[in-house]
Design brief:
It is a single chain. This protein is α/β, with parallel strands linked by helices and 377 residues long. The protein has 2 domains: 193 residues, Rossmann fold; 152 residues, Rossmann fold (3-Layer(aba) Sandwich), CATH 3.40.50.2300. It is built from 12 helices and 15 strands. A hairpin with a 2-residue loop joins strand 11 and strand 12. Helix 6 packs across helix 7. The longest helix is centred in the first third of the chain and has 20 residues. The protein is globular. The termini are far apart.
Amino acid sequence: MKETVKVGVLFSQTGSMAVTETAHINGVLLACEEINEGGGIRGRQIEPILMNPEGDDRKYAEMATDLLVNYGVKTIFGCCLSTSRKAVLPLIERFDGVLFYPSVYEGFEYSPNVIYGGAVPNQIVPPLLEYVFEHHGRSISLIGSDTLYAREINRIVKEFLSESGGDVVAEVYLPFSAETGEIRAAIAQCGVDQTNAVLSTMVGGDSVALYDLYAESGLREKSVPIASLTTTETELMKVGRGARSGHISIASYFASVETPQNPTFVSAFQEKYGVNAGPSVYSEVGYSLVHFYANAARLNGKVDTRSVLQALSGSVFKAPGGDLSIDMDTNHFTLRPHIGLSRTDGTFDVVWDSPKVAAPDPYLVAYDRSITTRVAG
């Protein structure tokens, strides 16, 4: 029997981020299963080695080292929060592995040893703000988890608002596992009569709590929506049914997007995880990155870091959300953003599809911060 191809799967299965990172895991493991059923990588089965860092950045670093040194892994699919990615990054570079990172993040980073699979600000911030400006107004409140991602995204959002005639009504950051009273106080700071929309960068279980408590607020009574860069079907299904509908999210994938390959993916996902476990962008990107990696490794049958990275150049994968291609100058992906309106059943109606794919610009070098309202929907 041929030797397996060991890959690391490094996501938290417990703690405040478990709800989101489990979605990453589900996508990764489904792809591994499909690849193995199709003959693996030139006959070699993928062997995922799953580790649980429990939301602890120190454990992310320790477990990444364990995978790279003791297990002989060259490739890790892992990390969600930017702090965990930054904890793992120097180890990936030191031991010459490759990290496939499946989460949205704040940009302003490059490593030759990291493949950044999630959207960066230029791909999702401008269209979301355009949509909110067009349909709701330009007075925005910002509520986020106290993370690097939230603070950097909101710094960028404030630049766009400043150059586009918008204003920030409130800006609040909450700790992980925030108390109910803390979340209620944050919502109250938004101002019922001043805020047109609340832009949320809350993550994980705290995002679920925000939506549940928001439903009790005066903002909800006035139909002021939450507009989110981080809330997906994964979190929405955990929100109370009466608090789910009427909110806005932007992502490179929703389970309801119409592509030829998406029905097959949704069906396979639900067959493996249950009919109520619909996929989200977190599972779709994890799934797509594994297939993208396997396609590259099949080209020459080698799974060392240099061979895989070289083979990625020019590769395309028909992902559930659309064709996926990588910009090897930045190691980020060209993506097509979509805007969804949340439903009571925990899914999204796609109300806007980008007419073209958005190339990655992780350092925002080519972006005018002035936004006009061009997004339809």
